[in-house]
Specification:
The protein is of the alpha/beta class. The chain has helices spanning 21-24, 43-46, 49-55, 88-100, 119-127, 173-188, 204-217, 232-239, 247-259, 262-276, 293-296, 303-312, 354-372, and strands at residues 16-19, 59-62, 66-68, 75-81, 104-109, 113-115, 139-140, 155-156, 158-159, 162-167, 193-196, 222-225, 243-244, 282-284, 316-320, 380-387, 390-397, 400-407, 413-416, 423-427, 430-432, 437-440, 445-449.
Length: 450
């Protein structure tokens, strides 16, 4: 990683456990009535913090916790905890309990758009072009602003065709002020990091100014943007961010394993390595927006391969809550189509099935390996062997190296290893020919000290 980047030092050891609180705690689908009592559900996440630590994670990434109309991404108050989840005291207690365990906390900031009930937009609907917050939005009045009368609603930019998500005008100084204020407010209360939702839809110049202001008082804050495709490195450098989501790698993981075409993965690893010259990507094999990895893979024997990739590749890895238990769930393009990947969890961890226990043990083993080799965070990666059904890649940081071999073949595979290989440290391979070759069983994998 270049010296120009300012990623906080603590991030080198960060492994995130990502939970979607509204779903996790079984919250109501829609906002409570104004006079309804607060539901104190956030404490349920405190009961899962020891599970997070035992898993090998060191960070808690929370999906939206702010007051919203429904799913959390239609925010109506960035400074209030959603009453379906609790109140500020509940979040303070969760942050304190996490920090007591050495766990960092990241909040999800939805700053590209707001819900229609947000006071800034409600003022526009009530007061028209003269509303003090009219400049927060990109508005088009049917007969011009001069002809406005009560009851006339403007046309406005929205988020990807969702009319209930009103896009903010990021050229507005007032919007810059608001977002910087919100981010600083919650950092002041003890959080450590922000996930910036739909960062790809926001001008980089906006993030650059907001991040400059935020870092003036919180230089150790980790700022990570959601970027699905495009110029990842440019999003980081131009926006003053620390990282962005590595969706290219996520796609290559499940797609190459399903197609048994590891050339696709090799290509993605080449692009991943190029990013590492500029920043350390935020890596994942599951999150609240995609089909769970156990459902995405067409061959259950390759779930281990996906976890190996997450644990051994350079990056800042995140495990989506429940993936470590082998949960399934398919995202569908319909109303409520996210429900299957955002289920309610038990009030506290309990006994699990033998199948779930095996997946959990695998995660613990591999995240433990990752913690023992924390240098992998900003290492470089090179593919040294690739065929349709087998691949070997080497992660290097100075004189520290690990080699990883994967096979999707129905039979045994022999893969060449780089010179200097020493010992097998995980997996089910066998070293041959003075450790210059590894023999993998059908659908096998291994990690080798090199």
């Amino acid at each position: 990683m270049t010296d120009a980047m300012h990623e906080p030092g603590w991030v080198a050891h960060a492994i995130w456990w990502h939970a979607y609180p509204l779903g996790f705690t079984g919250a109501e689908r829609h906002a409570l009535a104004p006079d309804a009592p607060v539901r104190h559900r956030l404490p349920r996440l405190v009961a899962w913090l020891d599970h997070l630590v035992e898993l090998g994670a060191s960070g808690l990434l929370l999906g939206p916790v702010f007051d919203s109309e429904s799913h959390g991404y239609d925010t109506v108050d960035h400074l209030r905890i959603d009453p379906r989840l609790g109140d500020t005291a509940d979040l303070d207690a969760l942050i304190a309990a996490a920090h007591e365990r050495g766990v960092r906390v990241m909040l999800d900031g939805v700053f590209n758009h707001v819900g229609r009930a947000h006071p800034a937009f409600a003022a526009v609907l009530a007061q028209g072009p003269s509303a003090p917050t009219a400049g927060w939005f990109r508005l088009r009045w049917p007969d011009g602003p001069e002809a406005w009368r009560p009851g006339v609603e403007p046309d406005y930019d929205d988020f990807e065709g969702h009319r209930h998500l009103v896009a903010l005008d990021h050229s507005s100084p007032a919007v810059v002020d608001h977002v910087a204020e919100v981010m600083t407010h919650w950092l002041d209360r003890g959080i450590d990091a922000w996930r910036l939702d739909a960062a790809y839809a926001v001008p980089a110049s906006f993030w650059a100014e907001v991040s400059r202001r935020v870092r003036a008082t919180h230089p150790d804050a980790y700022l990570m943007g959601e970027v699905i495709h495009g110029d990842y490195a440019g999003s980081v450098t131009d926006g003053g961010l620390d990282s962005v989501t590595q969706y290219e790698l996520w796609k290559a993981v499940w797609s190459s394993l399903n197609d048994r075409n590891l050339h696709e993965l090799a290509h993605a690893l080449g692009r991943h390595d190029a990013m590492l010259a500029t920043f350390v990507p935020f890596t994942f094999i599951g999150n609240h927006d995609v089909t769970r990895i156990a459902s995405k893979l067409t061959d259950a024997r390759h779930l281990a391969h996906a976890v190996v990739l997450l644990a051994t590749l350079p990056g800042t890895p995140a495990v989506y809550a429940g993936d470590e238990l082998g949960l399934t769930g398919v995202k569908e393009d319909r109303a409520g189509g996210d429900d299957a990947v955002r289920p309610a969890f038990a009030e506290r961890p309990g006994d699990v099935s033998p199948e779930a226990a095996a997946v959990l043990a695998l995660h613990r083993e591999l995240l433990g390996l990752r913690r023992r080799h924390a240098w992998l965070h900003a290492a470089r990666v090179e593919v040294t062997h690739v065929a349709n059904e087998s691949i070997v890649y080497v992660c290097t940081d100075g004189d520290r190296r690990l080699a990883v071999a994967l096979s999707t073949s129905d039979g045994e595979s022999a893969c060449p290893l780089p010179a200097g290989t020493r010992e097998l440290i995980a997996g089910d391979g066998a070293l041959l020919d003075n450790a210059t070759t590894v023999r993998l069983p059908a659908h096998g994998w291994c990690v080798v000290a090199a």
